[in-house]
Amino acid sequence: MSAATTTAAGTGYVFKTEGLTRRFSGFTAVNNVTLEIPEGGVRTIIGPNGAGKTTFFNLLSGMLPPSEGRIWFRDREITSLLAYQRARLGIARSFQITNIFGHLSVYENVRLAVQAVHDGKANFFMPERRMGDLAEKTESVLHDVGLYDARDANAENLSHGDQRRLEIGLVIASDPPVLLLDEPLAGMSPTETHETVDLIQRISPGRTILLVEHDIDVVMAISTTITVFQTGSVLAVGTPQEIRANEAVQRAYLGELA
User: Fold this and answer.
1) pLDDT score, position 115
2) 99 is a domain residue
3) What is this structure's pTM?
4) Which are the contacts of 170, defined by CB distance < 8 A and separation ≥ 6?
5) Does any domain span residue 95?
6) Which of 175, 196, 215 is the last residue of a domain?
7) Minimal CB count within 10 Å: which of 56, 112, 138, 145?
8) What is the per-residue pLDDT across 164-175, written as a single tens digit (0 to 9) for each?
9) How high is the pLDDT of residue 98?
10) 199 vs 168: CA distance, rounded Å
11) Is 90 exceeded by the pLDDT of residue 99?
């Protein structure tokens, strides 16, 4: 299946790129990518290290400007929008390196994220009695990510897996329709991986989750579609079954999955 035919008839896209390119001092990390990513489901990007996956994420989220090309989000061109402007449209992003307030409690981390969405501020000193609906939303997020029982623990004392789930909690505090998760399973134990995969599946209904991931077993199990990057370009797009059967992907990346 080619990139040009990834969107089924009558289905809208969440992202569309046209000739998207990013160069770094003569090195082309993303090379002329024209792609449509349909709404809904778990849309996973795979490829070897250096294939351009994270750079592509950075271009979609506004962390990097393109050298060439254009980007649309739900029929709106966003090529020139900054990261915070894209976030206001509902594009939320996590990173490979966990990004939390380690010295604060789990509850305080989520509360600040919820409050920032509510009033645009992160007030460390807001009394609990004034939180009202913010407290209810904070507790809801903690339940969603399975960290309610750990709400009083300092974030820095959580396991690696729990810290990654906390970061996802910060990302979903704004109820974003689109999540970009960059290697959320990196460095996890099998148990932590299982718990985080369950979390991704729980929060996916009603959202589009765009995922960069190296764990092929997980990718094949949870993905709606898979996009394979190689040397900055799109090698193939399809369902897990189509990608598993794709000879070019087998030669370039999957190997033993043939």
Assistant:
1) 86
2) no
3) 0.83
4) 99, 100, 109, 110, 113
5) no
6) 175
7) 112
8) 999 999 988 888
9) 66
10) 9
11) no
List C-alpha distances in Å: 36 to 17, 68, 83, 121, 237: 7, 17, 20, 35, 10
Q: What is the mean pLDDT of residues 161-166?
A: 91
Pair 224, 43: CB distance under 8 Å:
yes
Whether residue 88 contacts residue 177, with contact meaning beta carbons closer than 8 Å, is answered with no
Q: Do 244 and 253 meet the contact criterion of CB atoms below 8 Å apart? A: no
Q: What is the pLDDT of residue 132?
A: 59
Candidate from 4-13, 37-46, 113-122 with smallest mean pLDDT: 4-13
Length of the chain: 258
Q: Where does residue 167 rank: exposed (0-12), middle (13-18), buried (19+ CB within 10 A)?
A: buried
Q: What is the DSSP string of 150-184?
A: GTTSBGGGS-HHHHHHHHHHHHHTT--SEEEEEST
Around Cβ 202, how many Cβ atoms within 10 Å?
11
Rg, Å, the chain Cα set: 19
Read off φ and ψ for residue 137, nearest 5 degrees.
Answer: -65, -40
Give the C-alpha distances (Å, rounded to integers) separating 70 from 75, 162, 193, 231.
12, 37, 35, 20
Q: Is the dihedral of CA 98, 101, 107, 112 positive or negative?
A: negative
Q: What is the CATH number of the domain that holds 33?
A: 3.40.50.300
Residue 126's pLDDT is 52
Among residues 152, 175, 198, the one where a domain terminates is 175
